[in-house]
Design brief:
alpha+beta; 9 helices; two-stranded antiparallel ribbon; 4-stranded antiparallel beta sheet
Length: 279
């Protein structure tokens, strides 16, 4: 998602150390990283207050839920669309650090705060939702002004051809990553995932989050109409957060496979060593 920066070397080759990311890009990346971790962990604590998801305008314990995480007779379970799996020790019923069995949906190590505190979790969540949203807004405005979106993220015509996409998929599956100066450009899979996250997932999370606010519903009642009710908005919010977690996992795996030292260094110092071409 970070913007590749034009190298100081006119014609960089494999093995050259080039300037890849600007300071503003690196700061934005790490602020986002911290904000997302806090948002996800505090969001799981909020989910623990009512670990059931519904479609429509209303939802309460007697109503049928499409997703539910709970415990029954000491056994944890997750139920999705009627299909139930046992999750004892992971979700629904787990053991805390003192050896006591707890019956909350997500375990304490995954939530913020680690103990049950809905009010404090909401404060963390809403505070860092502002940090994340303002950072994204600045990023979008700045990227439009400097042309980053058009230049680096939007796919060219040749990139959306099925043969080109299939070749990129095969290269990723075989762990064949770009070498030399080609490593400074996004491939079609990266562009597609980044565009999906920036223009679909994150806006969906922000809008559904606003829809769950009674104050926002009073000011902008069209939000409820757009999502078909507050419970549907809550479900979409959870699904979008899950997809965002999957994106982060894939992102981290790709960093490990591409060379974690070089990749992380480029996001800290801005300097990146171009992978050497095979001779």
């Amino acid at each position: 998602m970070a913007a590749p920066h034009v190298s100081e070397i006119a014609d960089p080759q494999g093995g050259d150390v080039v300037r890849r990311h600007k300071l503003s890009t690196r700061l934005w990346h790490w602020v986002n990283f911290a904000a997302l971790i806090i948002l996800l962990m505090s969001g799981l604590m909020i989910f623990n207050a009512h670990p059931r998801l519904y479609w429509g305008e209303y939802g309460a314990n007697p109503d049928p839920a499409w997703l539910e995480i709970g415990s029954q007779q000491g056994e944890g379970y997750a139920r999705i669309a009627g299909a139930q799996v046992t999750t004892t020790g992971v979700l629904g019923s787990w053991t805390d650090g003192d050896g006591n069995t707890q019956s909350r949906a997500f375990p304490s190590w995954a939530t913020l705060p680690s103990n049950y505190n809905l009010a404090l979790a909401r404060r963390w969540h809403l505070t860092f939702a502002w940090v994340f949203s303002l950072g994204l807004t600045f990023y979008l405005v700045w990227s439009l002004v400097n042309g980053h979106i058009w230049r680096d993220l939007l796919p060219g015509r040749h990139e959306i051809k099925p043969r080109h996409i299939w070749n990129d998929i095969k290269n990723h599956a075989r762990l064949r990553f770009p070498k030399g100066a080609a490593a400074l450009r996004y491939n079609i899979l990266q562009k597609t995932s980044y565009i999906g996250v920036i223009f679909v997932l994150i806006p969906a999370m922000i809008l559904t989050g606003l829809t769950m606010s009674p104050a926002m519903d009073a000011s902008w009642p069209w939000l409820l109409d757009m999502f078909g009710g507050r419970q549907t908005a809550r479900s979409i919010h959870f699904i979008a957060a899950t997809l965002l977690v999957l994106f982060i996992i894939v992102h981290l795996v790709m960093v490990l496979l591409a060379g974690p030292f070089n990749e992380i260094r480029s996001m800290i110092t801005g300097r990146f060593r171009l992978p050497r071409e095979k001779r």
